[in-house]
Design goal:
By secondary structure, the chain is an alpha/beta fold. The chain has three domains: 4-113, no CATH class; 122-260, Rossmann fold, CATH 3.40.50; 285-396, no CATH class. It contains 14 helices and eleven strands. Helix 3 (130-140) crosses helix 7. Bound molecules: zinc ion. Residues 286, 288-289, 295-296, 299, 301-302 line the site of zinc ion.
Length: 398
Amino acid sequence: MKDSFEIFPQPLHVSGEGQRRCCLIKERTASGDTIEKELWFLYPAGLPMLEDDNSDSYLLAVLLPAMQLKANITVHGSASSELLANLTELQYVWQKWCPEQYFLIDIKVDHIRKNECRVDGAVCAFSGGADAQFTAYRHATGQAGYSSQALHAGVLVHGFDIPLSDTKGFAGAEKLASKVLDDLGLRLITVRTNTSELWGVNWEHYSGTALAAVLCGLSRYAGAGLIASGDAYDELFTPWGSHPITDPLFSSGIFKVIHDGAGFRRSEKIKTISQWPVGVNSLRVCWEGSENDRNCGSCEKCVRTRLNFLIAGVLNPTCFSTPLKKAHFKKLKLNRGYVTDDWKYIREKMISADVDAKWVRQVEKVIKRKPGPQLAYLFPPGTQRRVFVKNLMKKYLK
Ligand SMILES: [Zn+2]
């Protein structure tokens, strides 16, 4: 007997908190043990919701955990035929990227939906970071040419990079996102979910399907969802949870997932954002500081973002509360090869943009420095492990 996952969709529950879609998942191990889990998504009141038995988002959320455990999936509900075809292909991608971690599995569905239509309009995932801001700004201002989507809203998720337990941090992020989306005439939709807490799947692999699971719950509100790219086409990195190869494979017959912005590097995106004062002021790029709703200004990503702004001709963007100083470079260590590549690219761009040579020298020193421990890899954003270590550091490093 093999491990198996059974998905049982539950009725929508509407309360003062919002609209809660959920399913029960029975995980059976080969030894005969059964673990029951509840996977839930809490959407705001008033938005049109999917039929209760529509299990597209549950299937997306469960796919990688099941592949990791080599467990077949049975859905006691409905799934889109297009999504099922896409997930078949998606399995091959993960199996080729990580053959020792993800295995091909079978998916059985009680009811397969065919010949469906998508409603008009789109939503974009909106973390408040540079990639999401660029995507929202580009589409809301019609700068994506023929590929411009009619954006209705940005979707901020509580339970991914900001854990469910951090309500204060999320309230801050929500306020910033609301301000910036409002400036673009877009609605903010916040969704809470426990997806990231249920299985021990590497978040760097899981983030894309988990995000698509949240977005496709809005299929009756908008027929397309944009996921902002991280890397540009000439710097793609695998295995990675959100990628131009995988993101379109999260699409169903009623919801198209679009990987957006890979035609641009981070410094090009920041150059675009730098023309938008509200965007600059509300930019949230930092996951390493002690607060989830503001930028620490001194971690690797904060300093890298400051450098991107320097290239765009902005010395001290308002999203950082202190000016750039030499001290910011002193202890920086680049821990992953692709981050070092990014810094080398930035160095070139700084030289061609005629940025003050004193900053170029600092960048060179950082590039030459020996790498440190891979903290972000050991403590991925959104995990309890990271919250625990953060709290510990707060307590002892004060
Ligand atoms: Zn930071």
